[in-house]
Write the structure tokens for this entry.
Amino acid sequence: MPKVSVEIPQELLDDLDEHVGDEGKFVNRSDAIRASIRKTLDMLDEIDERHGRVDSSGNEDTEAESTE
């Protein structure tokens, strides 16, 4: 799995850490960040589908563009 380096404000990192560890929902920061990215991308896909920007396979919806 590729590694990615990002800069995160301390306040956001502190919030993330509240959900990580023995008492949290995630085993480690990487799991928490992967889950957050996946959820965000899924939400963006749903928004795109509602607006006809992308069909369910992830391809551009050229039919919707041609009827506008």
